[in-house]
Amino acid sequence: MRLTNFHRSAIVAAALQDVPTVNYIEQLRTLINKKVLAFQKANKLDLVEPTRLISSYIHLAGQSFSTTGMFSTEKNTILDSPDVVALVTAHRDQQTRISALSSSLRSVLEGCTTVAQAKQMLPEFEKYFPSSTTALSRSVPVLANVLSDFVKAGWPKQNTRIVQQATPNNKPAKKKAAATA
């Protein structure tokens, strides 16, 4: 069976799902929320002053974290804290490692044109390959009664000719026979 780009992408995605990862983003969100709340309590920002009513955010690791009531100089204390820096560094290292794994597996699969070749090169990854018994259908699946379902739903609003053709009382075979007679 031919190995397509779709198959290659699916194999890589499935294999990467089995790689253990740590959710650093959630840990980072929890840590930043704790730090912002501690700052707000320490500075008695229960009632936010109009000068602090600006909705501000910290952008880290592709995510945005709310820091409402904090000025930019105050936000920098959170960004520069060692525990936040450690989590961001760990997240980036993990993303780099996953990207490298993805690239290396994809490059091996790019060298294969069939599933059999890929199984010979990567026997450990055989469970991620498509089964050879599954036949690919290149045609669009045909759905029965599509037109009648649309007509029942009120389609089309303006064109009544299609509605008359799709009604079950209409007998197109007799019309053809009458037209030929």
Q: Can you offer a commentary on this structure?
A:
This protein is mainly alpha-helical and 181 residues long. It folds into two domains: 5-128, no CATH class; 146-180, no CATH class. Helices cover 55% and strands 4% of the residues. The chain contains eight helices and two strands, in the order ααββαααααα. It has helices spanning 5-17, 24-42, 72-79, 82-110, 115-121, 146-152, 160-166, 172-180; strands at residues 57-60, 63-66. Strand 1 (57-60) and strand 2 (63-66) form a beta hairpin. The longest helix is centred in the middle third of the chain and has 29 residues, at 82-110.
Ordered list of secondary-structure elements with their pairings:
Layout: H1 5-17, H2 24-42, E1 57-60, E2 63-66, H3 72-79, H4 82-110, H5 115-121, H6 146-152, H7 160-166, H8 172-180
Antiparallel strand pairs: 1-2
Helix pairs in contact: 1-4, 2-4
Poorly predicted ranges = 173-178
SSE order, one letter for each helix or strand = HHEEHHHHHH
Principal-axes geometry comes out as flat
The radius of gyration computed from the alpha-carbon positions, rounded to a whole number of angstroms, is 30 Å
Strand order of the largest sheet: 1-2
Q: In percent, how helical is the residue content?
A: 40-55%
Helix/strand/pairing category: mainly alpha
User: The biggest beta sheet, please?
Assistant: 2 strands, antiparallel
Number of strands: 2
- Percentage of residues in DSSP E strands: under 5%
